[in-house]
Amino acid sequence: MTIYNFSAGPAVLPKPVLERAQAEMLDYQSSGMSVLELSHRSQEFETIIKEAENLLRELMAIPDHYKVLFLQGGASTQFSMIPMNLAKGKKAYYHVAGSWGKKAYTEALKLAQIIPFEPLLLASSEKDHFNKIPLYDKAVIDPEAAYVHITTNNTIEGTAIYDLPDTNGVPIVADMSSNILAVRYQVEEFGMIYAGAQKNIGPAGVTVVIIREDLLDQEPILSSMLDYKVHVQAHSLYNTPPVYSIYIAKMVFEWIKELGGLDQMELINREKSGLLYTFIEQSTFYNNPVKNPKDRSLSNVPFTTPSEALDSQFIKEAEKAGFKNIKGHRSVGGMRASIYNAFPREGVIALVNFMTQFEAQNSK
């Protein structure tokens, strides 16, 4: 039985990358050591991290005046690092279109009790259960504010922002954890981008930060480990980095390049998600909660059947059929197909076929 892993993260990795990692596990490039054993100060790892950065710069067309960091702590640590580094004495706006955007805003409110800055809720779709991207009037944004924080893809709710909002000239800081390298964004339209690796980049353990040079704080902050400038000056080696995760990330970047680059990756993702959305749209049995097609995620597709009982039955039968981790997030329910870059097209086709059979057997 073929297994298809729909996990929202840590998620499926490209098979060629896993096979290469397997082949190099005991002896990396005739070094006599596994990458798991390499010193982060070794020449071997210096080559790995430099190649990883160069590949990411090439794929995303990152301008020279942006710094690239490979950090630890996940995207959630960035919820604290961003205001600590960027927002001293200023306003910071939060656009909340999902659970992770809400967590970023909640963390900012906590920090505002000890750090002098003013976090402001710019817009929220929480009252609509985050089933759409909320709108706002750009005139409410103070042009002297530090940043506007957005989440480009809402993993739990299945919404995404593709056309960036007008922020009245204020830098955009984007949590791109679940659709980085899935679609093309123009990096120069952001002040900062950050992303946990465990969806489209590699295994959990490394967080990519792309930050414009002029946003680096000129004064030391509370902790060196939370200071972007310290990490920039140390070239992501201020402390021991997640060596193996960066190694896998480098090979994922190579895999995307070999496929044809980021634009080709986006075409593949649009085709994959389109197969699933088209099927759901023509069905009277299944429902996608995101009604506006332009707000729909290419990476995470939530859906439901006519009842919670049928949802539970679907999940149980899907699991037996080899469709793993398709249960929706506990806060939303239903099902969720996370079809990140490495998820194969044939897995989407197999899911559609399974959904067709389930509908035929259970529709009244």
UniProtKB/TrEMBL annotation:
Pyridoxal 5'-phosphate binds at A75, S76, W100, T155, D175, Q198, N239, T240. Pfam families: Aminotran_5. The modification N6-(pyridoxal phosphate)lysine is found at K199. Signal peptide: none annotated. Its cofactor is pyridoxal 5'-phosphate. Binds 1 pyridoxal phosphate per subunit. Residues 3-350 form the Aminotransferase class V domain. Its EC number is 2.6.1.52. L-glutamate binds at R41. Pathway: Amino-acid biosynthesis; L-serine biosynthesis; L-serine from 3-phospho-D-glycerate: step 2/3. Keywords: Amino-acid biosynthesis, Aminotransferase, Cytoplasm, Pyridoxal phosphate, Serine biosynthesis, Transferase. Coiled coil: none annotated. It is an enzyme of class 2 (transferase). One of its GO terms (cellular component) is cytoplasm. One of its GO terms (biological process) is L-serine biosynthetic process. It is found in: Cytoplasm. InterPro entries: Aminotrans_V_dom (IPR000192), Aminotrans_V_PyrdxlP_BS (IPR020578), Pser_aminoTfrase (IPR022278), PyrdxlP-dep_Trfase (IPR015424), PyrdxlP-dep_Trfase_major (IPR015421), PyrdxlP-dep_Trfase_small (IPR015422). The keyword Amino-acid biosynthesis applies. The keyword Mitochondrion does not apply. One of its GO terms (molecular function) is pyridoxal phosphate binding. Belongs to the class-V pyridoxal-phosphate-dependent aminotransferase family. SerC subfamily. Homodimer. This is Phosphoserine aminotransferase. It comes from Streptococcus pseudoporcinus LQ 940-04. The lineage of its organism: Bacteria, Bacillati, Bacillota, Bacilli, Lactobacillales.
